[in-house]
Amino acid sequence: MSSIKRILVSDPNPEYKKIITRIFDANTYTVDFALTGQEVQAFCHKKEYQIIILDLATQDHSAFTVLKYLKSMHPSLKIFFTIPDKKNLSERSLNEKDIMNAGANNIIYKPYNVQSLLSILSKEFHPSLNASTSPSESEKVGKELKIKDDLFTKIKIDEFFSGSSCIFDLFARLKKDHYVKMLEKGNYFDSKRITEFIKDKKIDYFYFLTKERNAYIVLMNKIIEKSISMPQIPIENKIKNIKNISEKILEEIHAVGLKNDLVEEGKKLCQQIHELVSKEKELYKTLSLFKEISYSCYYHSFLVSFLATLICKQLEWGANSTIINIILGGMLHDIGKLKLKMNILVTPPWKLDSAQFEIYKNHPIIGVKLLEKFPIISNEISQIVLQHHETINRKGFPNGIGGAKLYLPAQIIGFVDTIANLMINNQVEVKKAFALFIEKKENTELYDGKIIAAFYKCLT
Hints:
The protein is built from 20 helices and ten strands. The protein is 50% helix and 11% strand. Helix 2 packs parallel to helix 3 (63-73), helix 8 runs antiparallel to helix 9 (235-256) and helix 9 (235-256) runs antiparallel to helix 10. The strands form three sheets. The chain has a five-stranded parallel beta sheet with strand order 2-1-3-4-5.
């Protein structure tokens, strides 16, 4: 952390500027003062702060809007909320838990008690001076810890990105239920030391606590958004990042269910996929990057979304919203499988007995019912989920519809779903998977010819 103790204070009352200035000038802190939420964001764009003190009454971008922005752009930043009193909270139908759950690190009640405020800041800037007699988290860094495996999320080392500082505690797995903490949340990400650790321990994955996964999703979406327009970043790195965050969004959905904030992050990611593919001139070179094939259902859904985007580019649809719906539909197309029993879920469809297959055929209907609870999900996406197994020859499911009744975007997802399955089940690259598809004439009777032709163009 920088030796400069820089703080930004936001308060709509200019009188507090005098109070704050007097407190901090006398205690060797560097402080800036903002009257509005917009000013906070402008300051943070120009300077780097360790702590922001944000008043609940902040206007022109509310305190919660600013908080969400700051946490997405600067996940390790400490943010304190200032509030007149608890009555003020109840008048806003809020409580302290709401504020902390939104991402605040502390709550300070007005009027400021100078000593208590300085004590809080001292703990943030000098944590070693406030250590208790019990072992601190810092003392656990580098030591073996016994923690259950099911509490962790793993990321391949070559797909991990943290930025200059770690946004969560970072671990390496030694054996079943045994980990060593490599970095603490907020620590500087020392690439040299981490690389030496990786070589010494011969590890392939980093681990973090699953409760931090949503914060990682938000951070990575911001990183991807910035990197898409940077020509100096190789496209394979961009695709790795997109794949990584796509899988983490789907893991979070499978773990906690579909939520509005996850759908919003999914939409943002779909926009990044669309933008990346739109800018790429040689699509086959992009497809050749998919050499490492995973059996993961999360990888499958990412692959379906990405391949569908390539077809959309070839079909030259003008409506950006339609393309985003198709990509998100690809990401969510199998969400109904969440409700299937594990013995059906882990068995390939062609190995299911007749009774099990009848249950399996209901997953598109189950998926639509899950999506009905979320107004943020458009009807177009629901139709993709419902129809992605329907075929032109009316031999699909769940309703056996065909011809003009079929929704073309659902046909796109159905087709690339088949290609993705051929890739994964045969462990082959996309061009070989397409060749396997074309080998069987009956396959070409399942999907609209212009979809198949558009995909063929992507391979040449």
